[in-house]
Specification:
Elements (H helix, E strand, L loop, with lengths): L5 E2 L1 E4 L3 H12 L4 E5 L23 H12 L5 E4 L4 E5 L2 E5 L4 E4 L2 E3 L3 E3 L15 E2 L2 H4 L8 E4 L3 H11 L5 E4 L9 H8 L4 E4 L4 E6 L3 E10 L2 E5 L2 E4 L3 E3 L30 E3 L11 H22 L1
Parallel strand pairs: 1-7, 2-3, 2-8, 3-4, 8-19, 10-17, 11-12, 11-17, 12-13
Antiparallel strand pairs: 5-6, 6-7, 9-18, 14-15, 15-16
């Protein structure tokens, strides 16, 4: 496509939210461009998805492939790339990547989040050398070892269940006194013989030589503050990727999430947002997809009124 093309909508982010938006925009016959760095987004790290309506059970990768295939049923353009800046130029938005410039009548931000890292000695030194972030991607590399996972959310519990297939023992290390997972996942976790939960405890240091060999805890466990493990998986939350809209004056909350209304509109006319990057409390793929549909319809209304 020519860089001189004026798009009705440019969608930033290639996760499930962005793909759903592209499908819907294409169906509404909007001139649509989807740009993102990671095809499928972070849900492709998810081993099993069981709460997306219409599919009893599938992987995160399978879900994104279905959404992408659906989007491609319409005349939309999908590109790999990173949008580095967005600014308003008269009645159009100018979006710049490393080597391209795009112009659009409206913009939908569906950039999602990145994983939050553990800020303790050794965490950076051993990153991708025993400090990992994706059980589905990396658990098999540490087969037969004792493994630790930090976090207590539903995501952490699901990661722990993946690790249990490969680990000698999985230690869930959580700073609170109760796991925050869906009841179904808690029941499944309780059935696993090789998973132990260490409550009200934090990791203060990660030790090793070339790779991780142990973690230091702030409380004793089985008589020692040092726990020998061959890998530590981090599942302590996510950071919204919202910096791209700051220069536009888009309102963010205290968590740096983009503030939207029920129509997925931001405070800046022509800028819409959806998915994990926004201030919706319940972060789920189906929620992001619903917000994406609202955003696209709102964008169409915005363009129609201007025309």
């Amino acid at each position: 496509m020519s860089e001189e093309t004026v798009w009705d909508i440019v969608i930033v982010g290639r996760g499930v939210t962005g793909l759903a938006a592209a499908m819907y925009a294409g169906r509404l016959e909007m001139k649509t461009l989807l740009v993102g760095e990671i095809p499928g987004g972070l849900i492709t790290w998810t081993d099993v998805v069981e709460n997306y309506p219409g599919f009893k059970r599938l992987t995160g990768m399978e879900l994104t492939q279905k959404l992408e295939a659906h989007a491609k049923e319409y005349p939309v353009t999908l590109e790999l790339g990173k949008i580095e800046s967005i600014k308003k130029e008269k009645d159009l938005f100018e979006l710049k990547s490393t080597d391209k410039v795009y112009h659009a009548k409206s913009v939908l931000i569906a950039t999602g989040t990145k994983v939050r890292e553990l800020n303790v000695p050794g965490a950076q030194e051993f990153k991708n050398k025993g400090v990992q972030f994706c059980a589905l991607c990396d658990a098999s590399l540490f087969k037969g070892k004792d493994m630790a996972i930090v976090g207590g959310s539903d995501s952490a519990v699901k990661e722990a269940m993946v690790l249990a297939r490969f680990a000698k023992t999985v230690y869930i290390i959580y700073r609170k006194n109760k796991l925050r997972a869906e009841p179904t996942n808690l029941k499944r976790l309780e059935q696993l013989k090789n998973v132990k939960v260490i409550f009200e405890t934090n990791i203060t240091e990660i030790k090793g030589d070339k790779t991780v060999s142990s973690v230091v805890l702030d409380k004793s466990f089985n008589g020692s503050k040092e726990l020998k493990v061959g890998v530590v998986f981090i599942a302590i939350g996510h950071i919204p990727l919202s910096d791209i809209v700051k220069s536009l004056g888009v309102r963010l909350n205290e968590k740096n999430e983009i503030v939207i209304n029920r129509n997925s509109e931001t405070n800046v006319p022509g800028v819409f947002a959806a998915g994990d990057v926004v201030d919706t409390q319940f972060k789920q793929a189906i929620v992001g997809v619903g917000e994406a549909v609202s955003a696209v319809y709102s964008a169409l209304q915005f363009i129609s009124k201007k025309n």
